[in-house]
Write a structure and sequence with these properties.
mainly alpha
């Protein structure tokens, strides 16, 4: 199970990076970046997964178990999701503004703006 999750995470990162490199549209690049970022979600899930480990919540009726799921990985995954949504929204807003200003979102046609 764990090896499969690492393979899926690597494939998503690779496909997202390849899509960014071959993109002919800024919106397509943002979508490919989102695919690559979802690979990081899967990678964090694979790192934090433990077979049969309970949640790290201890009450008065339960005794602490030697093996619990690491809460730090869960916090990192939630932070990764929030950052991913924020970056995606910011880049899409930027692509909309570029489209309004220049009439195109093709990066090759925008290369005249370098300077």
């Amino acid at each position: 199970m764990s090896g499969y999750a690492y393979a899926v995470a690597g494939a998503l990162l690779l496909l997202g990076g390849l899509g960014i490199a071959r993109s002919r549209d800024l919106v397509h690049s943002v979508v490919c970046l989102s695919v690559a970022q979802s690979g990081t979600f899967v990678l964090l899930l694979a790192v934090g997964y433990q077979q049969g480990a309970p949640a790290p919540v201890f009450g008065s009726t339960t005794s602490p178990n030697d093996q619990v799921v690491d809460p730090l990985v869960q916090a990192l995954a939630l932070t990764d999701i929030v950052v991913s949504g924020t970056v995606t929204a910011l880049l899409l807003a930027l692509a909309i503004q570029i489209g309004k200003q220049h009439g195109t979102v093709d990066p090759d046609e925008l290369s005249a703006l370098e300077g």
